[in-house]
Structure formats: C-alpha cells, structure tokens
Design goal:
Distance between the termini of chain A: 68 Å
Radius of gyration of chain C: 20 Å
Structural class of chain A: alpha/beta
Chains: A alpha/beta, B mainly alpha, C mainly alpha
Largest sheet of chain C: 2 strands, antiparallel
Helix content of chain A: 40-55%
Strand content of chain A: 15-25%
Strand content of chain C: under 5%
Number of helices of chain A: 13
Number of strands of chain A: 13
Helix content of chain C: over 70%
Structural class of chain C: mainly alpha
Shape of chain C: globular
Oligomer: heterotrimer
Chain lengths: 410, 352, 301
C-alpha cells in the first residue's frame, strides 16, 4: 500500500511539472516570436548511424553564424532580427523514436518547422503526421525520390539533394555512352536505398548487368559477395552501398586481383572513404579511376582549396566547431542545407507563417554558392526537386576531377 | 484495515491515471500511452522472468509480431485496428508457446542467448518476406482517430491502452495467484525440486512463454497504432534489452514496479540527449564557469543513458518496487517514533 | 538474378574468406570465454571495450607518434588496467546480484563505452594501420590477405598462451579455483577479489588484441565490434562458453558455415545470414546443451 502511495505521489509530481506547459494556449504562429524562430530536426546521435550526426553540426554552425553576423540588408542579426533556435533530437535511427521526437518537437517544443531530418524510413514515418498538422518538413536528409515525386500529395514535405534514382540513371547513361560492351556486376544494399539506385541504373542500362549481390546494412564483411561477383566474369563493378562496405568491397576486389571499371555511389565515394580504401589496400590502384557523381563542391579537393565558399566554410568551422574534421563533407552538406533554409526564410517575409515558408521553399530559385559551379537551386511547386544539377567526377591519385557537362536531371 | 488500505491505494492510482491527461499536453499524453504499452509488455516479461525465472532478451521480437499483425491486418486487409490488438496478442502468444519447446532444453546464459537470437531473427525475417511486411520501408498505418466525439485521438488511445493494461494486470494477478503461479515460482526456485513434486516443466515453461509473449504482442499492437509505422528498424535489439532494463528497474517479480520500469523505458532514452544541456544550463545559472557543450555531438545521449542506468541499478538494486518498499519502511519507522503507542510496522509482505 | 556458375577457384576463395571472418569472431569470443570462465559474467560490453581500447591505440599511433608494435603493447597494458579497473570500480558494486543484474550492468557499460568513443573520437571511420604488408599471398590463384593470416595466427598464439596460463601458472590455477568455488578458494588462500579483477583485465587485454587486429579489416568506428560481438557470442556458446579452444573452433566453423551457406544456398540471402547463425546455435544447443567442447553437466529431469 505504501508503494501505491509513493506511486500516486510520483504521478502528482509529474502533474505538477507538466501543468504549466499544458495551460499555455496554442500560439497563432508556433515557434515564432519577435526575436526568435524555433526549428527542429531529428538526427541519429547514438548507434551506428550517428556517423551522419555531422550534418546537424554543420547546420548548427551555419545558424550560429547567421545569429551572430549582421545581415547585409537590414544590419540585423539573425533573420529579420530573429535568432534561429535549432533543436536537435536523437532518434537513434529508429523510426518509432523519430515519430516520438517529431511529435515532441511539434507538440511540446512548438517548433515552426522541421528542417533536415535524416533517414528515408524515419522521415516517411512522420510525413503523414506532419502534413496533417500542416507543419513544414523541409529539406529532409535523404535521397529517396518520393520527396519530390509525391510533393503534390504531401505539400508540406520537400526533399533537397539529388535523388538516388537520378544518380543511378547517371551511371546507366555513363555505361551506355562509354562502356558499350560492359559486363556489369552490382553490389547493393538490401533495402530501398540500394534498390532505388539499382532501379535508376536498370532503367538505362539493365541489359549490361551480369550479376548482382546484396549485403545487409550492419554486416561485417562483403568479401564473399565480391568474390562471387568477380566469378561472374564482369569487367565493370557498380557499388551502391554505404561507406564501410564500399571500402571493404574496393579492398577485396583489389586483393583478388580484379581490376574492373569502378562506379561508386556518391554517398560513399568521398575523399575520406576512398583514402581509407587506398590505405587499407596499400595501393592507389584500388581506387584510381572510380567514377561517381557530385552536386556540392568538394571540401577535400585541392581544386576547391581557393574557392571562396569552401574557404568561408572552413572559417566558420574553425570558429564554431574547432575540433571537427573539416574534410568530412557532411559538415559542408549540413551547412549548404542550412544556407538554403535561411534563403527561404528571408523570402517567407518579415512576418512568416508556416504557409508562407512553404511557398518560399517551393519557389526558391537562386544561384547557391555551395553547389557546383554553374549549378543553381530551382524549385517549383510542380517540380519540387531543389538540387537538380549533378556532374560526373573521377577519382585519380588522391582527388576528384569533374568531367563531362553539368547534367540537369529534371 | 490493510486490505481496505490496499484497495484504497489502487483506487487512488486508478483515479490518478484517469485524470492525468486532463492536465497534460498532447505529447505528454502520448508518452504516457507508450508507458502503458510498455507496462503491458513488462507485466508479461515479469511473468516469464520474474516468476518463472526464465531470462528473455528477445521480447522485442514478440512485440514485433504483434505490431506486424496489426499493421498487415489493418492496412492490407482493412480490419478495424481495435480488433487486431487481441489478434496481435494471439499470434505472438502462439509464437512464444512454440519457442517454449526448444527453450525447455536451455537454461541460464544459453537461454539468454537463444532469446537474444530471437530479437535478431524476427526483424531479419520481416525483411526477407517483404511481400507481406513491406521490407525495410515497412508499413505505414493511418493516423489514429477517436471513435468518440469530443475525445481527442491522443486521449482515446491513452484511455484505451490503460484500460487494456488494467484488465491485463488483473488477469496476471489472478494467473499468478493460483496453482500456476506456485508452479512457476517452484520452477524458478529449483527445477529439480519442482519436478519431483509433480510440476510438469514442459507444460508450465511453454505456458509461461506463451502468456508472456501474448502480453508482448498486445503491447506491440498498441505500439504500432501509436507510432503509425511498423518496420524492421522499429524493433532493434535495443528494444528487447530495454524491456529487460525496464523489468529490473521496476523490480523483478513486482507487479506494480512495472509502472516505474515502463516509465524508464519510455522516458530515459528519449530524454538522455537533453540532460547535458540542462545540467550545463543549471551550472551556468549558478555561476559556475562551464564550457559550452555542442548538443549535436554524437555519443552524448548514450553516455548519459548508460550512467543513469548504472546509477539506478546501484541505488535501487531491487528496482522501483524495492525503493518504494524501503521508503515505506522508513516512513513507518518515522511514524512509529512520532506516535510511540503505535505498534512498530510489520515487515511488508511480498508482492504478488 | 543471374546465376554464377560454380568454380573450384571461387570455392576455395570463399573458404579463405569464411575462415578469415571466422578468425575475427574467434578472437573476440576468446575474451568472452575468459571472462565467463573466471567470473561467470556474460559480458555484453566486451566488444565495446575492445573497440574503445582500439581507439586508444589509434590515438597513440596518430596523435602521439607511436609506431604500430609499441602502440600494440602499450594498449594491451592500458586495456588490462581498464578491465581490472572496471571490475574494481563498477562490477564489484553489483557482486552477488543476479545473472540479470550483471547482464544489465554490462549493458550499461556497453552503452557508455560506445557513446564515450563516439563523443571523444567522433563516429567517423578511422584509418587503422596494419602491421602486415597489404600485398596478399597468392596460392594457386586464391588470394589470401596477410592481415587475415595475421588475425588467425595472433588468435592461435593467444589461445595457446591462455591455455598454458591456466594450466601451468599459479595465478591461472587460482583463477580457475576462484571461479569454481569462491568460498573454498578463499579458505585456501586464494585472493578471490583480485582473481576476478585479473580475469577482467586479461579479457580486456584479449579484447584489445582482437580490436587492433580486426580494425584494419572492419575500419575503426564506435560500432565496429557490435555485429562481431553477436557472432562471437554464438561462437563462444558453440564451443562451450568455458573452453578457449572451443571458442576458436566455434568461431572458425561459424565464419566458414555462414559464408558458404549464404554463397551456395539460394534461400539464405544476405538478410538470413545472422538468423542462420542463430538457427545453428539453437540446434547445437538442443543436441549438445553444453556446446561442442563443453562438459555436460548431468541433469536428470
């Protein structure tokens, strides 16, 4: 019985703590005051996917900069004098936790919008909910094609980066144009991420495929799959994977003495990861000649060492996240995304509403300095794919060189 | 007097649960609904681990079975999701009952590992048979709606879940009170002795697995409706481990402790990430020079969660229930000193 | 899907890969067995401690100018102190708790070491140097990576040293005695608490060896050892949880079995590899409840 009394007391205590928050009435414009705007995101800060946490850090760094600097036009800090308050909640890459944290951000913290939430399954889990509540779900950090394709059905949701299907198409086109006799072996991740890429590639170059193998996201080794692909007699190896298995696949192919043409999806084909593969294989031959695509400037490439935007990025990183590894492109990715959001927020007006923000995002067209030279953000309500320019790029002797023309994918 | 007090206590608890949502926002209400769902799973786990002494590191798998049953039936076959809740329980219960047979041969760490395997196998199977389960993307359920006018969906699910929890709580008490409960505890204390006094291991162990999994299945069904998504990523090994953590935090064998355990399961992992910022904030407010910590740093939530877990086990080795018992004993001592004519408190009885 | 025809060359290559990944499982399984044997704790944090100490080695090499082998041995020393320290400071407080409590305590440690490593060193993959040349051996067209041979050889050395330690040294005998009968051992003058600490220390040191050897293969991240731990559990139980030799044999069989089955049995696609491992585990346990190398305790029911 005492136990019950203790329990009842505990419940009363919960009540007392929760009461003040519950009594505050709904604001007309949640998350918005004269001096601040509150936005949120969900990100894996624990578990295997916490590898992507730098995206949130990159966003935070950019918002800190915006909050501290005086804008060129009105000489005010923040956006029209409003400080951006950025709440990051850990979802451990578990969609149920994403659903809970998103509800917390919307119902408890009353954020104005959700920006840059990570993970296809995770963001899909809350899309319906956010659209019902008419809360902007902007620039999700995933390349599934559904964000742009289904924008009409879910008008409060929009993606950002080039989608996996389009990237797959780019590799398909490359094979058709440059390797007309190719026999392609594919290693892909056994989920919608891998299958989206493969779908894009198949639609252009399906007949070139001679063997496919899958792996699981948390696997220890892909050696066995690579040995099997090699045995198929393929002369071109397309890797559609996340970084660690990609490195493993490249090293194994090299060890087996297999020297195919290499195509690697852009998520994994970064200087950092290819550098790891090269070190592990003990030879640049393991990674030389890899073809991939790019849509952002490459922070690690000497070609962009003197680029004003890359330099600006490095200055901000040094100021707000001094211990971070600036060559990790994910910080740049987060910052570029945050910059686009700030652009949209300005265009949403001095007294923004959730609806005016969505209108601004849907019509955002500008030359973003974070994209490849010549590329720009083009968004229309009828074609909601903000980043639609990509270019093929080849890795040789430690850095990427873009080649071919800038491709407009939609 | 004691029984009347006990009934009064339960009544007070029921009233508290009933009025709580009136004072809470929608999100906190939903969180407490999750607590209710976890409490149901923990009551089941308590029957298996607390009473029959069989460790399960795989109860998330049974939750997954319940959740998938609900998702597949309600989304693909248009069955009313309320009806799918008992079906989720039955599917999971059957699976648990069948798993009880190989588990008969296993004990201690071996059983722990076999159940751990279950937690790994079920999400993988869900991926493999994607024509039914939607593969990695899983199945999206409709957003919950309330069938009763004037009641918000959040409150509707809250009352529904807690009503189910209350009924299942009573069932568990009745189940454990009779012959079956004695048989299970006999198995826990000493299998050989239990067998020699005529308890059938095969019968009671499989029964314990089945009933326990039934509870987890019900919890899983509710979990699916609440989260409106079911996919393999929603049932990681962490969930199974977390349930066991909740059981120990609540107090193994204690039926009321599950409430504390369920609250831990729901709140601590979600809130752990915010603790450092709050601590730093508080320290800075008192004027201590603490450097700013980047709240977006990976790893911080895990460290906080782990430390909280160890601290709770260290400070309350018998769980919330044990803590409450100790507090109760302390208050009794306090009162008996205040009112010397009163008899000193009798040692608290063992919880059913 | 396009069928790839069977060739002996590829078959032997798959065997080599199977044994290589099996050696990875075996090396961590060895540490699990050691701790279980000396303290009867199933240590869920074993893999994370191994990962954490591997980060220390990485830091020594990258930030403090150590070359590989000095870093290797210094790290083993640090790992021993870390393991013994964890036992003295954390585990000790929960001594006498149930199986369940101990499992949870090690899970708490798991989470702390994992989060701590991500916090201190960030979750990005790290390039961990290998002491072996990257050029593989080639035997009849089958490529054998030196790193894989290295993992296997180091694991075999570890198991031999361990066997000799338990068999011939006083400390080893003391540890065995402390595990089997703490009370009588205490009466006979064995310092039981210290034996436990040494057990944890040795296991952590073995874990560090495992981590350092596999890091060049799996790439150093805070989650490097998590899947390995699951397979290592299976390997240890297959071998009979208390037998170091069993752990090694169990690990190799497991690596070989999962690799060959997922390659040649079409039904077992990549997502069924882990379930398949557990199916083997449950089957073995049903037929031989004490594992392949464990002693069967007679239990009449």
């Amino acid at each position: 019985m005492k136990k019950l009394v203790v329990l009842a007391a505990a419940l009363t205590a919960v009540l007392a703590v929760a009461l003040p928050g519950a009594l505050a009435g709904p604001a007309a414009n949640p998350g918005l005051t004269a001096t601040s705007i509150k936005i949120g995101t969900t990100m894996p800060l624990s578990g295997a996917a916490s590898l992507y946490a730098p995206i949130a850090t990159g966003m935070r760094v950019y918002f800190s900069h915006i909050n501290a600097r005086r804008a060129a036009g009105d000489r005010k800090r923040g956006v029209y004098g409003r400080q951006i308050v950025f709440k990051v909640e850990d979802d451990a890459y578990n969609p149920v936790q994403t659903a809970q944290q998103t509800r917390k951000l919307v119902e408890q913290d009353k954020v104005f919008a959700l920006v840059g939430g990570l993970g296809t399954e995770q963001q899909l889990a809350v899309r319906q909910y956010l659209n019902q509540k008419k809360v902007p779900q902007i620039y999700v950090s995933t390349g599934a094609s559904t964000w742009g394709r289904d924008h009409k059905t879910y008008p409060w949701t929009i993606g950002w980066q080039t989608d996996y299907v389009s990237e797959g198409i780019a590799y398909g086109n490359y094979v058709r144009a440059n390797l007309p006799n190719a026999k392609v072996a594919v290693l892909y991740q056994n989920d919608d991420y891998g299958k989206d890429y493969l779908y894009g590639f198949r639609s252009r170059a399906g007949r070139f495929i001679v063997a496919t193998e899958t792996y699981e996201a948390g696997t220890t080794s892909v050696s066995s799959q690579v040995a099997r692909l090699r045995a198929s007699g393929a002369d071109t190896f397309l890797i559609l994977a996340i970084p660690t298995p990609t490195i493993g696949a490249l090293v194994t192919a090299y060890r087996l003495g297999w020297k195919p043409n290499l195509l690697v999806n852009s998520v994994s084909a970064t200087d950092t990861f290819l550098g790891l593969a090269q070190a592990s294989a003990g030879s640049a031959d393991a990674v030389n000649g890899i073809v991939t695509t790019a849509y952002l400037k490459d922070v690690a490439s000497p070609r962009y060492a003197n680029d004003a935007q890359v330099k600006f990025y490095k200055t901000l990183m040094a100021r707000y996240a001094p211990s971070a590894n600036v060559n990790n492109g994910l910080y740049f990715y987060g910052m570029a995304k945050a910059a686009d959001f700030v652009q949209a927020l300005y265009r949403a007006g001095k007294a923004p509403t959730r609806a005016s923000l969505m209108r601004a995002v849907e019509n955002l067209t500008y030359k973003s300095p974070w994209l490849l030279p010549g590329a720009q953000i083009i968004t229309k309500p009828s074609s909601a794919f903000p980043i639609r320019f990509q270019r093929l790029t080849r890795f040789n002797n430690g850095s990427f060189t873009e080649f071919g023309s800038l491709q407009r994918i939609r | 007097m004691r029984i009347a007090g006990r009934a009064g206590g339960y009544a007070a608890l029921l009233v508290a649960i009933a009025v709580l949502p009136l004072f809470l926002g929608t999100f906190r209400t939903t969180q407490l609904t999750y607590v209710g769902a976890f409490a149901i799973a923990l009551i089941g786990l308590n029957i298996l681990t607390g009473h029959a002494g069989q460790i399960s590191l795989g109860h998330g798998a049974f939750m997954a079975l319940g959740a998938y049953t609900t998702a597949i039936l309600s989304v693909n076959h248009g069955v009313n999701d309320l009806l799918t809740i008992p079906l989720g329980g039955i599917v999971a219960g059957l699976a648990g009952f069948l798993f009880g047979f190989p588990a008969l041969r296993l004990a201690g760490v071996y059983l722990a590992l076999a159940t751990f395997g279950l937690a790994i196998v079920v999400p993988s199977l869900a991926k493999r048979f994607d024509e039914f389960t939607g593969g990695t993307a899983g199945i999206l359920l409709d957003l919950p709606t309330s069938p009763i006018g004037g009641l918000t969906p959040e409150r509707w699910l809250y009352y529904l879940t807690w009503a189910i929890a209350a009924v299942l709580f009573l069932c568990a008490i009745l189940f454990l009170r009779g012959k079956t409960g004695r048989a299970l505890r006999a198995i826990r204390e000493n299998e050989l002795a239990a067998v020699s006094s005529g308890v059938s291991l095969a019968r009671y162990k499989t029964l314990a697995f089945g009933v326990s999994a039934f509870y987890a299945g019900i919890a899983g069904s509710i979990y699916a409706i609440l989260s409106f998504i079911v996919n393999p990523g929603a049932f990681p090994i962490d969930l199974s481990i977390l349930l066991l953590v909740g059981l120990v935090i609540g107090g193994v064998g204690s039926m009321l402790g599950v409430l504390g355990g369920a609250a831990f399961v729901e709140f601590v992992p979600l809130e752990a990430g915010n603790v450092p910022a709050k601590v730093i904030d508080a320290l800075q407010r008192v004027g201590l020079p603490v450097s700013d910590l980047d709240p977006t740093t990976a790893g911080v939530p895990s460290v906080v969660y782990g430390i909280i877990l160890l601290l709770v086990i260290a400070l309350a080795p018998q769980g919330v229930a044990g803590l409450a018992r100790r507090l109760g004993a302390a208050t009794r001592r306090f009162y008996s000193r205040l009112i010397p004519t009163n008899k000193p408190g009798t040692p608290s009885r063992r919880e059913a | 899907m396009v069928a790839v025809t069977f060739t002996w060359g590829e078959f032997f290559q798959q065997v080599v890969f199977g044994l290589a990944i099996g050696a990875v499982y075996a090396s961590l399984a060895l540490a699990l067995v050691l701790i279980f044997r000396t303290t009867h704790v199933l240590n869920f944090a074993q893999g994370e401690m191994a990962m954490f100490t591997t980060f220390i080695a990485w830091s020594l090499i990258t930030n403090h100018g150590f070359s590989f082998w000095p870093a290797f041995f210094v790290t083993i020393g640090i790992a021993f102190l870390l393991g013994a320290g964890v036992e003295r400071i954390v585990i000790r407080r929960f001594e006498g708790g149930s199986h369940l409590t101990m499992i949870l305590v090690t899970i708490g440690l798991f989470v702390i070491f994992n989060g701590g490593a991500a916090w201190i060193w960030s979750p990005e993959q790290k390039d961990f140097p290998s002491p072996f040349s990257a050029e593989p051996y080639s035997v009849g067209g089958v490529a054998i990576a030196r790193q894989h041979v290295g993992i296997l050889v180091v694991t075999l050395i570890s198991v031999t040293v361990l066997w000799a330690f338990f068999r011939f040294t006083k400390a080893g005998l003391g540890m065995r005695a402390a595990a089997i009968g703490p009370e009588p051992s205490r009466l006979l003058g064995v310092r039981v608490p210290w034996m436990y600490a040494v057990g944890w220390g040795l296991a952590a040191a073995l874990g560090a060896i495992s981590g350092i050897m596999v890091a060049p293969e799996l790439f150093l991240t805070p989650t490097m050892m998590q899947v390995v731990l699951i397979y290592a559990f299976v390997a240890a139980v297959l071998g009979g949880i208390e037998s170091p030799v069993g752990a090694v044999v169990g690990g190799l069989l497991l690596g070989l079995g999962t690799t060959l089955v997922s390659r040649y049995v079409d039904f077992v696609s990549s997502e069924l590899e882990l379930p398949f491992a557990f199916a083997i585990l449950v089957l073995v346990l049903i037929v031989r409840p004490a594992g392949l190398f464990g002693r069967v305790t007679v239990r009449r029911v």
